Amino acid sequence: MNFETLQYQQEGYVGTLTINRPDALNALNNTVLAELKSFAEQAKSKSDLRVLIITGSGEKAFVAGADIKAMQSMTAAEATEFSYTAQAAFNAIEALPFAVIAAVNGFALGGGCELALSCDIILASEKAKFGLPESTLGLLPCFGGTQRLPRAIGLYKAKEMVFTGDFYSAVACEAMGFVNRVIAPEELLNQASAMAQTIASRGPIAVAKAKESMHTGFDLSLADGLKQEGALFGELFHTADQKEGIGAFVEKRKPNFKGN
User: Fold this and answer.
1) Which domain holds residue 236?
2) Looking at 78, 94, 114, 126, which residue is catalytic?
3) Which GO terms fall under molecular function for this chain's record (predicted)?
4) Residues 6 or more apart in contact with residue 162 via CB below 8 angstroms
5) Active-site position among 134, 212, 244, 251
6) Is 134 a catalytic residue?
């Protein structure tokens, strides 16, 4: 995987994707968005990838938002297309059939906050700042923020964040419920890796099915969600991993999941 604005490395079943535009605080332009979508399309079929960590290069920013200068001369039609391009990239990341961890090392503003929200788990440095400041530019969050944030923290708190455009500390976001853990800056990637390794040791098909159940079930009635949950549970009994997991428990040994 060779990209202009992304760096990728993999150790075992865990991959780390770094958005690498430090001079622009890793701001999202069309190139970054296209490469994120391309990466996700390639990664979804990688049988040797079970957990992905996404972070930003440098110490200042995870992603400091969209490239504002690139938007200055956009027409309304171009702006709409820009929004849909970003949404498609983030949807592709959200739909990956394995766990995705955002390791937020600095500013996660606008599109950066929206990118983090498309991940499954958000780990944040004590120095991280989150916000959706589009209202200060006469705009609204258009990379999924008005949809994913209310689902993550509730409608009324999301309205406060979006309407004010204020920045929030990692601790405040943890209290709101969309940051999982706040970590010392020097330990962020180590702890993200440790969590990733733990998840990677679990049954990969089970993790994928659990993710599917939660994502699709969120918009279903409880009755329909429970029905789906039971069906997905049953599907796992067609897998070798299920037999390995149960067998390992009975035999009092660690399971060796193959992902089949």
Assistant:
1) 203-251
2) 114
3) enoyl-CoA hydratase activity
4) 132, 134, 135, 140, 141, 145, 146, 149
5) 134
6) yes
The helix/strand/coil state of 7 is strand
Q: Tell me the pLDDT of the chain averaged across its residues.
A: 95
CATH number at residue 216: 1.10.12.10
Inform me whether the pLDDT recorded for 1 exceeds 80. no
The first and second tokens of residue 162, run together, are 């979006």
153 pLDDT band, cuts 50/70/90, is very high
Among candidates 70, 15, 29, 2, which has minimal Cα distance to 199? 15
Same domain flag for 167 and 213: no
Q: Of 86, 85, 82, 97, which is closest to residue 41 (Cα–Cα)?
A: 97
Same domain (yes/no): 122, 225? no
- Catalytic residue list contains 187: no
Verify that 114 and 237 share a domain, yes or no.
no
Record the pTM.
Answer: 0.95
User: Is 71's pLDDT higher than 80?
Assistant: yes
First to last CA, the chain: 25
Q: Is the pLDDT of residue 67 over 90?
A: no
Percent of the chain with pLDDT over 90: 94
Residue 233, pLDDT above cutoff 90: yes
Q: What is the mean pLDDT of residues 196-211?
A: 97
Q: Is 251 exposed, middle or buried (0-12, 13-18, 19+ CB in 10 A)?
A: exposed
